[in-house]
């Protein structure tokens, strides 16, 4: 990044939620197995790849107690020619099932329709740390390309051997190998049948250059789209087994409360009801959800509570409870901020805050657990199937190989489904009942017992010269995180520090996480500096930017938006913001209308340019980008979790406002396709510049500079 | 005697207590899981079904309220392998990401178009205001409803 000599090492983002499992249960017998189906399989290892062909259908030549963690991707060509790609990543609405299948089809030279993806199943797919951090496209796409290229090599080799010709000159296309010299061809399915082969493959098997993509890069519609519009797709919450029970868990009245006493006599007396008490865990399972609820209501528990702070005190608390000294890895310094401040024409210091917000995925946390022969299988909507498996193994004292976690395509997550809470609850109840148990969290549970995007305080000190060049930049983030903390602007004198604070509310990943907070503060501050310098906000940014990719998205967004725009209506305002994170770039322009009498703020238009290298699927990408713009409006304008004494005060959609149809502005997404740059992920970055662009537009309309997210939870006047 | 309700043209006895919200009877007893639980509080629209032809939040009405009023769920829209125009329009527009809200959005839209064949943009917004899409697919959903309206007018449906 320009203007930054070296990257400092900040804390890895809180993508992995490391809270220890809450419940520990008694030991269960060891048992384990893994199976991979029949056909040609190709595996990619971190630095090497090897191929294995099945000796006979149903007799896997590759099976292990534990699939090795250094194998990152594999694919399988069945004897009917069906190609199956395997990844430990989960489909949570970001459309990887389609994008990854496209990649395989492209590289293997087969029709898109012949490829299916098996995702996020700990018994079938490669180990994966989790679906987060916009990592699927930059890591899994190239790996699947490599295994597909390797599989193609094996098929070419097999055909060459079959025909006794040199492999050069043979062509792989349309799911067959052809020999133009003789006119012969063999289908992949035919080549996969009945042979044995084990072969090491070159480390860097060349893959198809971006410019020659034929299936990747195309706007292919979401696979299985029909199963979603017909309601046929089975989410975790839809899974059903004969004899399955519905589980519910007794929640404490507040965070950290411990069970003082519990009378479950009445619940136990109910027909068909199982009651489980194991330490502080109290849960019930019943033949249907309303009986489970009745049983839960019949349990009388007393809890010992602990006093806790509220959202009103949170920001001063965060400042006061940061470590006195910042660890070296959390700080970065260049030049002298003091010198930069001293000689400047304008100096501007400001403090920004961001509230806790909730992911509120529409499918709440859910799990179905089934025990058989001491082995546990859990279906659950999680972004971290392998970590869930490990946590289940830990909690139930099982070897990892005795636990299988399967993630059905899930009703969204946005960083909010890393933990294994529902899985553990369902498994505990299922073990007691000796029958499968489904646990579906209520909306209130989802809003209360999941985890949040952390709140934060950000302090900036800055200065500019008379001609609008940044001369000093000091940036402190308390608690919310370090992603996107480094300024992309050219500034010789800078200091950046991230100050961790122990958790107040259970907090973890969220789409973009701290990058949203850090971009909100930085881009709002840049706007205020532009105003101090009496410069156009776009011109001011350009003056202080040399990064060509950032400049390009700013130019693209500004052009489409018509920046600088002339105000034609009362209350109209325009704002711009930009940013870069995780290898992609974004610039957002916002138009707002502020009703000066009522203080109501309406976002009229959002234009966003996004660049993430070579685009794999422009249709899916557009959905992600527009989706991030709209979701980002919620955190920008009105979303905030209110809490007091360990209780969430707004745990409902009626009290926690999310963007709805009436909030949605005219949106435009400009997808900048850079075929010359490797594809980066797109799940997060498109959300980052929304809040500052809107805040800056409100300033442009009213002259009021807002420093806190959400910007206008109650409109502008009552702020 | 258990009550009886008609869902997607078939009659079913209901063994759950008659005050059980229709949503749980549909999902857990009849195993029509296309209708989704999103909040159980009538705040998100994921559980929308047609009751006597009108869109209703199935989490907010007791099963007994469906006696004598035919229920249509998302599973009942497809006829002889042909999608309902609203389903087809959602598919064509790619109007979903995680798609958990899709059933409810489609059922609400079917309900709207039955009473207002050519709704304005403002009318669509007003009608879908109670339906939550967390992925931010609203513009495509709007587009799908508009193109479904056109399709249905063309077919005289």
Q: How would you characterize the overall build of this protein?
A:
- The complex is a heterodimer of chains A (719) and B (157).
- Chain A has 719 residues and is an alpha+beta fold.
- Chain A has a seven-stranded mixed beta sheet, sandwiched between helices. In chain A, strands 5-4-3-1-2-9 form a six-stranded mixed beta sheet.
- Chain A is globular and about 80 Å long.
- The interface between A and B is large, with 56 and 58 residues.
What's the layout of helices and strands?
The complex is a heterodimer of chains A (719) and B (157).
Chain A (H helix, E strand, L loop, with lengths): L39 E6 L2 E6 L17 E7 L5 E5 L8 H13 L6 E5 L16 H28 L7 E3 L2 E4 L4 E4 H5 L5 E4 L23 H5 L15 E5 L8 E6 L1 H4 L5 E5 L2 E6 L2 H9 L2 E5 L9 H7 L10 E4 L2 H6 L3 E9 L2 E2 L7 E7 L2 E6 L4 H11 L7 E4 L14 H13 L3 E4 L2 H7 L2 E2 L2 E9 L5 E9 L15 E6 L14 H19 L4 H7 L4 H14 L10 E10 L2 E11 L6 E11 L6 H20 L5 E2 L2 E2 L17 E7 L17 H13 L5 E2 L10
Parallel strand pairs in A: 4-5, 10-21, 16-32, 19-20, 24-25, 28-31
Antiparallel strand pairs in A: 1-2, 1-3, 2-9, 3-4, 6-7, 7-8, 10-13, 11-14, 12-13, 15-25, 16-23, 17-22, 18-19, 18-21, 23-24, 26-27, 27-28, 29-30
Chain B lengths: L2 E5 L2 E5 L7 H8 L18 E4 L2 E4 L13 E2 L12 H9 L8 H14 L5 H8 L9 H18 L2
Antiparallel strand pairs in B: 1-2, 3-4, 3-5
Low-confidence stretches of chain B: none
CATH class bucket of the largest domain in chain B? Alpha Beta
- Most extensive chain contact? A-B, 56 and 58 residues
**Biggest sheet features of chain A:** 7 strands, mixed
What is the makeup of the main sheet of chain B? 3 strands, antiparallel
C-alpha geometry of chain A: globular
Mean of residue pLDDT values of chain B = 96
Number of domains as seen in the coordinates of chain B: 2
Under the CATH scheme, the architecture of the largest domain in chain B is Roll
Terminal residue distance of chain B: 38 Å
Number of strands of chain A: 32
Question: How are strands sequenced across the largest beta sheet of chain B?
Answer: 4-3-5
CATH fold field value of the largest domain in chain B? Ubiquitin-like (UB roll)
- The CATH architecture of the largest domain in chain A can be named as 2-Layer Sandwich
β-sheet strand percentage of chain B? 5-15%
Structural class of chain B: alpha+beta
- Return the CATH topology of the largest domain in chain A: Aldehyde Oxidoreductase, domain 4
């Amino acid at each position: 990044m320009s203007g930054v000599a070296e990257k400092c090492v900040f804390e890895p983002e809180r993508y992995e939620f490391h809270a220890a499992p809450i419940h520990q249960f008694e030991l269960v017998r060891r048992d384990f197995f893994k199976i991979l189906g029949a056909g040609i399989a190709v595996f990619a290892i971190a630095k090497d790849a090897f191929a294995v062909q099945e000796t006979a259908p149903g007799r896997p030549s590759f099976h292990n107690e534990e699939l090795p963690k250094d194998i990152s991707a594999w694919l399988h060509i069945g004897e009917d020619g069906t190609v199956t790609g395997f990844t430990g990543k989960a489909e949570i609405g970001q459309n990887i099932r389609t994008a990854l299948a496209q990649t395989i089809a492209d590289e293997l030279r087969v029709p898109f329709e012949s490829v299916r993806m098996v995702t996020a199943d700990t018994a079938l797919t490669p180990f994966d740390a989790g679906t987060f951090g916009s990592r699927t496209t930059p890591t899994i796409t190239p790996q699947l390309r490599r295994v597909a290229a390797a599989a193609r090599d094996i098929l070419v080799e097999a055909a060459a051997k079959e025909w006794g010709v040199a492999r050069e000159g043979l062509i792989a296309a349309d799911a067959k190998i052809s020999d133009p010299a003789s006119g012969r061809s063999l289908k992949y399915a035919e080549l996969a049948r009945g042979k044995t082969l084990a072969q090491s493959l070159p480390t860097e098997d060349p893959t198809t250059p971006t410019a020659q993509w034929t299936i990747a890069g195309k706007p292919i519609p979401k696979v299985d789209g029909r199963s979603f519009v017909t309601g046929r797709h089975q989410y975790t919450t839809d899974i059903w087994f004969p004899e399955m029970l519905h589980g519910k868990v007794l929640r404490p009245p507040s965070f950290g409360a411990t069970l003082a006493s519990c009378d479950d006599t009445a619940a136990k007396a109910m027909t068909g009801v199982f009651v489980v008490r194991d330490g502080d865990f109290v849960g019930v399972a019943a033949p249907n959800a309303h009986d489970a609820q009745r049983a839960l209501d019949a349990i009388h528990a007393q809890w010992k509570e602990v006093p806790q702070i509220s959202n009103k005190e949170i920001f001063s608390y965060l400042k006061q409870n940061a470590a006195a000294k910042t660890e070296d890895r959390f700080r970065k310094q260049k030049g002298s901020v003091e010198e930069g401040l001293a000689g400047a024409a304008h100096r501007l210091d400001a403090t920004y805050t961001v509230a806790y917000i909730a992911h509120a995925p529409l499918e709440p946390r859910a799990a179905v657990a089934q025990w058989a022969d001491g082995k546990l299988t859990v279906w659950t909507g999680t972004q971290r199937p392998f970590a869930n498996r490990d946590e289940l193994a830990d909690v139930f004292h099982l070897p990892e190989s005795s636990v299988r976690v399967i993630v059905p395509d899930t009703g969204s997550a946005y960083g909010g489904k890393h933990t294994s809470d529902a899985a553990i609850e369902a498994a505990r109840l299922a073990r007691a009942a000796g029958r499968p148990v489904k646990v579906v969290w209520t909306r209130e549970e989802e809003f209360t017992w999941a985890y949040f995007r952390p709140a934060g305080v950000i302090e900036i000190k800055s200065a500019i010269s008379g001609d609008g060049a940044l001369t000093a930049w000091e940036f402190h983030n308390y608690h919310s995180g370090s992603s996107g903390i480094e300024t992309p602007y050219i500034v010789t004198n800078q200091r950046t520090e991230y100050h961790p604070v122990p958790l107040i509310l259970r907090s973890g990943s969220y789409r973009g996480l701290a990058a949203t907070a850090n971009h909100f503060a930085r881009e709002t501050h840049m706007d205020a500096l532009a105003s101090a310098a009496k410069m156009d906000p776009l011109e001011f940014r350009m003056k202080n930017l040399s990064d060509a990719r950032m400049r390009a998205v700013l130019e693209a967004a500004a052009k489409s938006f018509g920046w600088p725009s002339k105000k034609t209506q009362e209350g109209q305002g325009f704002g711009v913001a930009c940013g870069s994170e995780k290898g992609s770039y974004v610039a957002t322009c916002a138009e707002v209308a502020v009703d000066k009498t009522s203080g109501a703020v309406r976002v009229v238009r959002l234009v966003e340019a996004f660049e993430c290298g070579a685009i794999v699927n422009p249709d899916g990408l557009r959905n992600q980008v527009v989706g991030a713009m709209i979701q980002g409006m919620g955190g920008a304008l009105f979303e905030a979790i209110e809490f007091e004494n360990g209780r969430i005060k707004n745990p409902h959609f009626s009290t926690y406002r999310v963007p709805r149809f009436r909030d949605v502005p005219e949106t435009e997404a400009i997808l900048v396709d850079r075929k010359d740059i490797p594809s980066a992920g797109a799940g997060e970055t498109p959300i980052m510049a929304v809040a500052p662009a809107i805040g800056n537009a409100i300033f442009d309309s009213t002259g009021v500079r807002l420093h806190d997210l959400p910007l206008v939870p109650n409109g502008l006047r009552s702020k | 005697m258990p009550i009886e309700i008609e869902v997607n043209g078939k009659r079913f006895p209901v063994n759950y207590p008659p005050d059980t919200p229709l949503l749980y009877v549909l999902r857990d007893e009849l195993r029509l899981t296309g209708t989704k639980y999103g909040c159980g509080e009538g705040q998100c629209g994921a559980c929308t079904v047609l009751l006597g032809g009108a869109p209703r939040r199935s989490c907010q009405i007791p099963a007994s309220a469906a006696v004598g009023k035919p229920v249509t769920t998302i599973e009942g829209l497809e006829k002889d392998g042909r999608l309902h125009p609203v389903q087809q329009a959602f598919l064509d527009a790619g109007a979903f990401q995680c798609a958990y809200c899709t059933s409810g959005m489609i059922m609400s839209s079917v309900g709207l178009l039955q009473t207002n064949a050519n709704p304005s943009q403002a009318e669509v917004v007003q009608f879908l205001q109670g339906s939550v899409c967390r992925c931010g697919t609203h513009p495509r959903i709007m587009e799908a409803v508009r193109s479904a309206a056109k399709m249905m007018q063309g077919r005289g449906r």
